[in-house]
Amino acid sequence: MTRDDEDNLPRPRPARLVRPPLDLWAVAELEAYIGELRAEIARAEGEIAKKSSHRAAADAFFKRPL
User: Fold this and answer.
1) How many helices (H) and strands (E) does the chain have?
2) What is the tally of structural domains in the chain?
3) Domain that includes residue 39, residue range
4) 61/58 Cα distance (integer angstroms)
5) pLDDT at residue 4 in the model
6) Is residue 52 situated within a structural domain?
7) Beta-carbon neighbour count of residue 59 at 10 Å?
8) 9 by DSSP, 3-state: which?
9) Pairwise CA distance, residues 58 & 66, whole Å
10) What pLDDT digit, counting tens, does each position of 7-53 carry?
């Protein structure tokens, strides 16, 4: 397999959220888990905003005059 062939292969996706058995957790543990999930959502939203900003800047830079 050549390097070009390797570049065309799909990238492996990292494991995402693993769903723990929530029925065994106390209320405090569930609330802490929700806090962790909210923090992860905020991190993902920040990355989306950063990538969107970069994309908008690139689109503006490479925009063709009409």
Assistant:
1) 2, 0
2) 1
3) 23-66
4) 5
5) 62
6) yes
7) 9
8) coil
9) 17
10) 777 877 777 778 899 999 999 999 999 999 999 999 999 999 999 99
